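Ticket opened by: R.M.
Priority: normal
Category: complex prediction / small molecule

The reporter submitted a protein together with magnesium ion and asked that the result be attached to this ticket for the collaborator who will pick it up next week. Submitted input follows.
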Amino acid sequence: MLRLAIQKSGRLSEDSLALIRECGINFLSTSYKLKTEATNFPLEILFLRDDDIPGYVKDGVADLGIVGQNVLVEAGYPNLEVETLGFSKCRLSLAVPRADAYASVESLQGKNIATSYPNILGRYLAGHGVQANLHTISGSVEIAPSIGLAEAICDIVSSGSTLLGNGLREVETVFRSEAVLIAQPNLTPEQQDLLEQLQFRMQAVRRAKRSKYILLNAPISALEEVRRLLPGIKSPTVTPLAEAGWVSVQSVVQEDEFWHITSQLKAVGAEGILVLPIEKMIA
Ligand SMILES: Nc1ncnc2c1ncn2[C@@H]1O[C@H](COP(=O)(O)OP(=O)(O)OP(=O)(O)O)[C@@H](O)[C@H]1O
Ligand SMILES: O=P(O)(O)OC[C@H]1O[C@H](OP(=O)(O)OP(=O)(O)O)[C@H](O)[C@@H]1O
Ligand SMILES: [Mg+2]
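Result attached by the on-call engineer:
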């Protein structure tokens, strides 16, 4: 049996639950029950505050956890990370009031900075030879300059709208973060085996999300060009069409290259291009 700790409610919750379900693991979840057991995989799920997850996993109270790298590194346990998960991407940034002059990180020397991440920020500033007074607060950090608590802040930024709404300007990126799977260091061999099964499924889900299945028709004369554009996993499937001189080609394409490749496919004579989502992808 493995115990997995995930965030009870917040920015990580929905994607963590979705990932577990996409791995084919079924469980009942209700907002008032803080522990549940999967029905078709030896997994127990604990619903916790995200700040508590690294410590629980380090102590082996939970075997696995899903948490942001920002919280993991701040807690001092970066070595627990076993897999990046590709969601809850954000950055920890320094920001100052929009009207204030800012030349470089050195201009923060001796200033008051409010943050929930004193360890990550302290290391960053020390790396730049800057000494500042860090005020640790646990939330609503962006309010600090406007109430006279600090001249600058360091907090999570994603779209930047919270900074904008509070009259602040992002000046330095201190740390980049995404959700990660973490594991306690003393898993039994049986638990290690279950973790590997889980990672295998998570990787298949992630790979599938980045890829699309593509089908198209092309004149045989364009086949070499189409093969070059769509190499697929091993090579594309090519089947003849009823109409002489034409083939149907099926392959896999990376989502971020899709539009670029499609325009080249059209240029070499491809027609009737269909693109389908892939649910799982095993290499
Ligand atoms: N705006 C955002 N965009 C993307 N990811 C974010 C954003 N804000 C936070 N995150 C990520 O999600 C994690 C959880 O954020 P959330 O705001 O839910 O935390 P919290 O308020 O501390 O929750 P808890 O109540 O569990 O302590 C953060 O540590 C960070 O990794
Ligand atoms: O750059 P943005 O897209 O505006 O996102 C950044 C904000 O998101 C997070 O807060 P959240 O909304 O999760 O609220 P919280 O303070 O309750 O954690 C974070 O603490 C920032 O305040
Ligand atoms: Mg928290």
